[in-house]
Specification:
By secondary structure, this protein is mainly α. Helices cover 62% and strands 0% of the residues. The protein is flat, with a radius of gyration of 21 Å.
Length: 123
């Protein structure tokens, strides 16, 4: 019974995990699904694996994954605005977020041009 509950939790976490726009082919949910399939058998088939399962350990790992999904550490340990605006370069994190949001939408030509812009810097 506990095995089914653990597998359901992992399946729910896999469904809720945000998609990675920068690396769509290498995702955490796919790695977690492979791990779950190897430990508990295929999620879709419902076949149990013969490996010994420490329920307490699995539930603590599931709890940690739910905490990551909920951003509870970010909520619990607030960061000040000064953290995101260092005096040396106040717009660094804002520019970084914009760059990350724009990167998946670029065409191959734009990516190539940006790569060469990085190589050829004029002062």
């Amino acid at each position: 019974m506990a095995r089914n509950m653990i597998v359901r939790h992992y399946a729910r976490i896999i469904d809720l995990w945000p998609k990675d726009a920068l690396r769509p082919t290498v995702t955490f949910p796919s790695a977690l699904k492979r791990r779950t399939d190897s430990r508990f058998g295929k999620l879709s088939e419902g076949k149990p694996s013969q490996a010994g399962i420490d329920e307490k350990e699995e539930l603590s790992q599931i709890n940690a994954l739910y905490l990551l999904l909920d951003d509870s550490c970010l909520k619990r340990f607030k960061t000040s605005d000064n953290f995101y605006k260092p005096k040396s370069k106040p717009d660094y994190y804002k520019n970084l977020i914009e760059e990350i949001e724009q990167a998946p939408k670029r065409t191959p030509l734009q990516r190539w041009l940006n790569k060469w812009k990085g190589f050829l810097r004029f002062s």
